[in-house]
Design the sequence.
């Protein structure tokens, strides 16, 4: 009986499911090609390019953290430079002062940021939109000052910052430290991007998005809005903190003035350009944030800021919902073209 | 007591700067419902134009009026040319457009007028007021002009048809359109007014902080903080918030031992966040009640 009913249900929608399956297959194929290409990149490219792509991935991870909070949960944050900074400093302090091995510092940085993010999420519950923006903005502004604060100098190194040893590749691998850093970052972000995708597709992910779309309806459906919002804040800070830890390892140096409000603004730009609420879009955002200022600088040093601004405006005019929105739009357009 | 009074007065003088900026921030918020991140840079650019006019030999007040008029037109143009096309884009995209505008104005001002610090004349002079050292004539003039602008705005919004139309367009665009208000032009007008107020603020602030392309960065932060503290829906609240931020910052720097001086910005911001915990829409702001 059930078999018959399933068959009946399946018949009318057969062409549609076929198309969806084909698109899914294409998607997975594309994903596998990208992963293979990324895995092969350091073997083919120069160490400078390898290093830059490492940084793109790190920014992409930080932007993904912001995306989880802003894109999926609808909480606005200008404070993610602070979480990035806390992650970076956790790694630097553990390695510099306590001789902890670098691979242990990455989860430690994430954990510290999770706790701080969760705690910061509690007062953030009371605030909405611009008022939350101001509170997170306060956090971003306070961070460099706290890091420079003289009573913490023995820990944080004060204004001078701390230097970090670049991790050495394990002995059995015939690669140099830039390549090892690349693979380390690549492995970490692969795991974390997959985890984010799973989170978003889970029951919790749907709850997180329901709170964004209609907080009152979400509460009426029995979602514990406060718990999910604070947890999302924590998870978001965790992602950005891990990015910060990787960033500290990559640059081999941390200083208070690397973690100002402008870093938060870069994350925000990357988030919007990549696509709010798009997981792969975060990586595109990282690409934009790293390369476009350099391109603007190479065109004219004096007017670099103006050129950057103009490029930003053009991108917003052409793709108002970011790269992910643009891809969605283009895919829809192609599908309609094929049908007619 | 003497020290306390002195610090409060110094805080009020700083606060007047923030209040000017907060007022401009709230104006544009009333018109377009977003914070304008480029507000400070717009004011900075206007101030540079005034400086240029004065350098070309115009008397101060002529340059002042020309600059305010120019800023008004430029504000309207920015809305019509840059923000009209993205008005239906998501809010975050619009914020990035503000960041782009910020970057363009900052960098072009640096290119045109370079980054050296310039002094800016004041019409009020720098003599001490009432023979004391607490506050000088320029600071008093600045407070006076800020309060006068606030009064004029109040009269404009309460007493004129245009003011009423602007409030209606901001509060409920659809209904406003139905009764025949041209909402698009009201928004443009709001931009123009915000730019003009920003220009006045810039010209008042420049004699104190000196003129350079980055002069507005710190001021804008405090201006935002003041506006949010006072409540973004209330121009009077924004001015009060601006003054409060100036005073809190100064008192925290003086009276909180050990950490006060180094972390005074942090302390001021933390206090503001604590205030917001209890009054989530700002001290003088109206609560926005959403309909389900």
Sequence:
């Amino acid at each position: 009986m059930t078999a018959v009913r399933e068959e009946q249900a399946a018949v009318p929608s057969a062409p549609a499911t076929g198309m969806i399956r084909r698109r899914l297959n294409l998607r997975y194929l594309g994903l596998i090609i990208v992963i293979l290409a990324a895995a092969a990149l350091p073997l083919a490219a120069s160490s400078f390019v390898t290093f830059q792509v490492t940084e793109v991935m790190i920014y992409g991870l930080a932007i993904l953290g912001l995306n989880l909070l802003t894109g999926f949960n609808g909480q606005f944050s200008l404070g993610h430079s602070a979480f990035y900074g806390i992650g970076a400093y956790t790694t630097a302090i553990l390695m510099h002062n306590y001789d902890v091995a670098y691979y242990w510092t990455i989860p430690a940085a994430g954990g510290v940021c999770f706790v701080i993010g969760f705690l910061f999420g509690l007062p953030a519950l009371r605030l909405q939109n611009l008022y939350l923006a101001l509170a997170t903005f306060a956090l971003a502004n306070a961070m460099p000052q706290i890091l420079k604060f003289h009573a913490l100098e023995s820990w944080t190194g004060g204004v001078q910052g701390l230097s970090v040893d670049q991790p050495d590749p394990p002995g059995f691998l015939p690669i140099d430290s830039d390549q090892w850093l690349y693979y380390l970052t690549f492995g970490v972000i692969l795991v974390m991007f997959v985890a984010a995708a799973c989170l978003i597709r889970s029951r919790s992910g749907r709850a997180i998005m329901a709170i964004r779309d209609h907080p009152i309806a979400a509460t009426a459906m029995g979602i514990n809005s406060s718990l999910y919002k604070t947890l999302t804040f924590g998870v978001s800070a965790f992602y950005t903190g891990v990015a910060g830890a990787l960033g500290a390892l990559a640059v081999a140096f941390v200083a208070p003035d690397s973690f100002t409000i402008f870093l938060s603004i870069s994350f925000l730009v990357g988030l919007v350009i990549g696509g709010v609420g798009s997981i792969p879009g975060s990586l595109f955002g990282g690409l934009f944030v790293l390369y476009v200022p350099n391109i603007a600088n190479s065109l004219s040093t004096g007017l670099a800021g103006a050129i950057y601004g103009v490029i930003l405006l053009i991108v917003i005019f052409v793709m108002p919902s970011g790269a992910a929105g643009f891809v969605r739009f283009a895919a829809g357009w192609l599908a309609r073209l094929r049908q007619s | 007591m003497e020290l306390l009074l002195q610090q409060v007065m110094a805080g009020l003088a700083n606060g007047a700067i923030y209040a000017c900026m907060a007022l401009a921030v709230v104006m544009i918020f009333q018109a377009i419902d977003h914070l304008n991140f480029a507000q400070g840079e717009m004011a900075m650019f206007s101030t540079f134009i005034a400086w240029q006019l004065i350098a070309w030999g115009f008397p101060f007040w002529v340059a002042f009026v020309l600059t305010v008029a120019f800023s008004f037109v430029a504000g309207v143009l920015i809305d019509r040319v840059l923000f009209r096309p993205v008005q239906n884009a998501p809010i975050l995209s619009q914020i990035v457009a503000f960041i782009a505008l910020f970057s363009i104005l900052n960098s072009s001002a640096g290119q045109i007028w370079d980054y050296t610090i310039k002094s800016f004349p004041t019409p009020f002079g720098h003599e001490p007021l009432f023979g004391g050292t607490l506050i000088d004539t320029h600071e008093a003039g600045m407070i006076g002009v800020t309060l006068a602008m606030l009064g004029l705005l109040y009269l404009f919004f309460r007493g004129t048809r245009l003011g009423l139309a602007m409030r209606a367009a901001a509060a409920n665009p659809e209904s406003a359109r139905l009764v025949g208000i041209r909402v698009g032009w009201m928004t443009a007008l709001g931009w123009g007014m915000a730019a003009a107020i920003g220009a006045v603020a810039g010209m008042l602030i420049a004699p104190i902080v000196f003129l350079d392309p980055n002069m507005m960065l710190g001021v804008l932060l405090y201006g935002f903080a003041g506006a949010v503290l006072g409540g973004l829906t209330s121009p009077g609240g924004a001015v009060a918030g601006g003054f409060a931020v100036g005073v809190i910052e100064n008192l925290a720097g003086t009276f909180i031992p050990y950490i006060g001086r180094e972390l005074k910005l942090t302390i001021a911001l933390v206090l503001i966040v604590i205030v917001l915990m209890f009054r989530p829409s700002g001290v003088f702001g109206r609560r926005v009640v959403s309909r389900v």
